[in-house]
Amino acid sequence: MINFNARQRRARKTRARIAEQRAIRLSIHRSNCHIYAQIIDPSASRVLVSASTLEIEVRKEVKNGGNVEAAALIGKRIAEKAKAAGIEKVAFDRSGFKYHGRIKALADAARENGLVF
């Protein structure tokens, strides 16, 4: 219970800073089995681009959606989709998750494939 509240507190603080900047944000969510990434427009509050381990193309490539390899693949896919949509710069919203493991792998892969944050 303590960890869940700490994550919510970190997420709330991060989202408040991003909202002040009025920046397009790359929002991440992870569960035990999957990882999800969305690029969200702040003015219309709508999803511009998304990628997750639930996509059929991704499921063919990775055996397990809840590991670092899958997270790196999602980072690469979200960066490619963002570039195709004309988005180059985003604010990274890790949803209060600590920056290591799968979150770090996704962020590093997105940066390597041209996304700036």
Write the layout of secondary structure elements.
Elements: H1 2-21, E1 25-30, E2 35-41, E3 46-52, H2 56-61, H3 68-84, E4 91-93, H4 102-112
Parallel strand pairs: 1-4
Antiparallel strand pairs: 1-2, 2-3
Helix pairs in contact: 3-4
Describe the structure concisely for a colleague.
This protein has 117 residues and is of the alpha+beta class. 46% of the residues lie in helices and 20% in strands.
Key phrases:
4-stranded mixed sheet, alpha+beta, 4 strands, Nucleotidyltransferase, domain 5, 117 residues
What does this structure look like?
By secondary structure, the protein is of the alpha+beta class. It has one domain (2-112): 2-Layer Sandwich (Nucleotidyltransferase, domain 5), CATH 3.30.420. It is 46% helix and 20% strand. A hairpin with a 4-residue loop joins strand 1 (25-30) and strand 2. The model has no long low-confidence stretch (mean pLDDT 94).
